[in-house]
Design brief:
heterodimer, A: 166 residues, alpha+beta, Ubiquitin Conjugating Enzyme, four-stranded antiparallel beta sheet, B: 461 residues, mainly alpha, 4 domains, three-stranded antiparallel beta sheet, 5 strands, extended, disordered C terminus, DNA-binding (chain B)
Chain lengths: 166, 461
């Protein structure tokens, strides 16, 4: 099989992530015959209600990657202002510079071909720790986070425990 | 594309005696493709990328990928220093890597050093990989060494060192110009004579006793001498000002495929201009035929033959959610789908369809000619889809709480997803169960599997 530009780059990234993974992050193609669909695991950052949890997500890459960003979708229950109820992650690094539905993101924070899976996952990890409630994907979660922080944290902890099967 | 099998990266250094070479190597790699710089170009904002990478980025959004400053292709300049750095590093990489790895091995057992053969045999997979790839790399780097000699010297024939002229004496069917003694292909002599300035080239380059060519020598002249001056760069076209027919005419002048709707034509032309102009920057330009092959690869992976049709970024949505009927459809749309095999195994279905179509020809709505996803072919498709699902259930990832994203198409341009509903499953997973599924196989077996052509496009999903 002749490999496309995107496949080659994804393979490079896979090797890099496998040989030198950042702490708390794991990622790779779901099926090694298809490099355009990845599974990722993110550990909940310490000192946050997500601590102790492990959150699986699916990354789906476009054919013209890395010119265009992938999409990321959690496959577990994740109560967070920047994650849609469907699990889809809404974060500036996953948005191409051209499309900014809310006009609040700086171009410098958004997707560029020099970004990588590793940088996305690190950004998502810090998003878990520090939600951005300026343009919430999950309005209910954002309201709860802003107004009833205790309740929010308790709900997140419950989800984490349930996710671990406790 | 033999080099696809060989994927060295900066992490190769991590477990050696020289881990600090990892960032050195990272610095010699393009941030866009993550590979070593290929024909590095520097932008007006002083960032360096491969020529093809930066051209694609600029064509896509007109900004530098690193600092997002607006940039233009005309402002790109060759970065010869980086090119030289990359080539010299690559030529010595295998040797350093071997040394750095051996140093680790000889540190561990505090006995007398064992012969290298033994060491490699004793160690695990990784060492095996080393021996395998290092032998390959040596070959490659030798090639590169000879090529970099050519690169460092834009006019290799006229300004040569004594050593080089002995070594690079071509014996490849080229003929010398009767005026200037420059060597060239026989068919280009006449056109050359028209503009030959008569300055004799270095007579040493025309030694009458050529040696028997070594392998390297046959590679060298093919690349170095064939095109003494790079072809003209192609201008961009203002597609909105051009009618479709004019565009197609232009395509046939350029010698590239002219089929498909106008948006596809525009994308194909953009890619061709990028390929062509990047090739103009190269110190070792490829032939037009090679470029056409690359365009064909683009066509199959991103263009009109790509899975998901002509749309720019339709995502192949396979194993994850693509159960049921969607799975079958995707199989047919795969870029490596074996069309001939499919046609053979479904010939009866197709025949049936054709005969039905002929029968219905007089009816107001005639059935179109056989299409792979036609109803008659579907039972077979479903069987296969079911089988592949079953395979998945048995697979290591089966207990993943997958949300169904069945056959969904993600519109990348808008960055939006069509379905934002559906029940959210509760995760019941522990990290330890997950690890093997993701990262169990060594990168070596990964290499082999990923780039292998699957025999059966359905099974391999």
């Amino acid at each position: 099989m002749s490999a496309s530009v995107a496949a080659k780059r994804l393979f490079q990234e896979y090797r890099l992530l496998t040989n030198d993974p950042p702490e708390g992050i794991m990622a790779g193609p779901v099926n090694e015959d298809d490099l355009f669909s990845w599974e990722a695991l993110i550990q909940g950052p310490e000192g946050t209600p997500f601590e102790g949890g492990v959150f699986p997500a699916i990354l789906t890459f476009p054919k013209d990657y890395p010119l265009a960003p992938p999409t990321m979708k959690f496959t577990c229950d994740l109560w967070h202002p920047n994650v849609y109820p469907s699990g889809l992650v809404c974060i500036s690094i996953l948005h191409a510079p051209g499309d900014d539905p809310n006009h609040y993101e700086h171009a410098s924070e958004r997707w560029s071909p020099i970004q990588s899976v590793e940088k996305i996952l690190i950004s998502v990890m810090s998003m878990l720790a520090e939600p951005n409630d300026e343009s919430p994907a999950n309005v209910e979660a954002a309201k709860m986070w802003r107004e009833r922080r205790k309740e929010y944290e308790e709900l997140v902890r419950q989800n984490v425990r349930r996710g671990l099967g406790l | 594309m033999a080099h696809t099998f060989d994927v060295p990266d900066s992490t190769d250094w991590l477990n050696t005696a020289l881990p600090k070479l990892a960032p050195v190597e990272t610095a010699l790699r393009c941030q866009v493709c993550k590979d070593f710089y290929n024909t590095p170009m520097i932008t007006s904002c002083s960032h360096t990328f491969c020529s093809l990478c930066i051209r694609r980025c600029l064509a896509s959004d007109g900004r530098c990928p690193t600092c997002r400053a607006a940039g233009q292709e005309v402002n790109l300049r060759r970065n010869g220093t980086v090119e030289e750095l990359v080539e010299t590093f690559q030529s010595t990489r295998a040797d350093i890597l071997k040394l750095a790895r051996d140093a680790i091995f000889s540190e561990r057992p505090k006995r007398r050093s064992t012969p290298p053969k033994r060491k490699l045999g004793d160690t695990d997979l990784e060492a095996d990989d080393t021996s395998r790839s290092s032998s390959r790399r040596t070959t490659r780097s030798q090639t590169q060494r000879s090529q970099s000699a050519a690169a460092a010297d834009p006019a290799p024939i006229t300004i040569e060192d004594d050593e080089d002229s002995e070594e690079q004496q071509p014996d490849d069917g080229l003929v010398a110009c009767p005026i200037c003694n420059r060597r060239m292909k026989a068919e280009s002599v006449f056109s050359h004579l028209d503009r030959c300035d008569g300055k004799p080239a270095d007579p040493r380059s025309q030694s009458s006793t050529p040696k028997t060519p070594t392998q390297l020598q046959t590679i060298y002249p093919q690349r170095g001498i064939q095109s003494p001056r790079p072809p003209e760069r192609l201008p961009k076209l203002n597609y909105s000002l051009m009618k479709e027919n004019a565009l197609r005419k232009k395509f046939s002048e350029l010698g590239i495929p002219a089929w498909g709707p106008k948006p596809l034509l525009e994308r194909r032309h953009t890619e061709w201009v990028n390929l062509w102009n990047a090739n103009c920057d190269s110190s070792r330009p490829k032939t037009k035929k090679e470029l056409l092959n690359e365009l064909d690869l683009w066509e199959r992976t991103q263009g009109g033959y790509a899975s998901g049709g002509a749309g720019s970024s339709l995502i192949k949505n396979s194993s994850i959610g693509g159960g049921g009927g969607g799975g079958g459809g995707n199989t047919v749309m795969r870029k490596d789908f074996d069309g001939a095999g499919w046609a053979a195994s479904h010939s009866t279905d197709f025949q049936q369809l054709i005969s039905e179509a002929k029968r219905k020809r007089n009816a107001p709505q005639s059935v179109p000619a056989p299409v792979p996803a036609s109803p008659a072919a579907e039972p077979e498709t479903d069987v296969n889809a079911d089988r592949s699902i079953e395979g998945r259930v048995n697979g290591a990832l089966s207990d993943l709480p997958l949300r169904d994203s069945n056959g969904k198409v993600i519109d990348d341009e808008g960055g939006t997803e069509k379905d934002v509903d559906g029940p959210v499953h509760t995760s019941s997973l522990s990290p330890s169960r997950f690890k093997p599924a993701l990262l169990s196989s060594s990168s070596k077996s990964m290499e082999e599997r990923v780039f292998e052509q699957p025999d059966d496009p359905i099974e391999d999903r």
